[in-house]
Amino acid sequence: MSRSERSPLLLAGLLATAGVAHFAAPRQFDAIVPRALPGSPRTWTYVSGAAELALAAGIALPRTRRAAALASAAFFVGVFPANVKMAVDWRHRPTPQKATAVARLPLQVPLVLWARGVAKAAGEAPGA
Length: 128
Fold this sequence. Notes:
Its main location: membrane. The protein is built from six helices and no strands. It has 128 residues and is an all-alpha fold.
């Protein structure tokens, strides 16, 4: 399997793993839901987990890959405020935890670019 064939499957795997984690260990995700959002943090945790699972499924299927990858790029931008909240909330924690929270911030950029690259490749695929 070529690198271009693996890339969407790896992205789908990342999203699926994150989506499952939202249901398996929701408390850690509840803590980073911005307070400005209406409703319960747990609801947002479950909604975002379900969205990640749906995006993973869409990327895994060649027929829906392009649209799902573009939606994933938007999703990665949309969850950025949660990463900012985590970095702010963890600023007084021990250095390894603080570093993890801060490292998540620039990680969103390659995730957005990866999703856009998967979308572009899917748009160029024969039969797309």
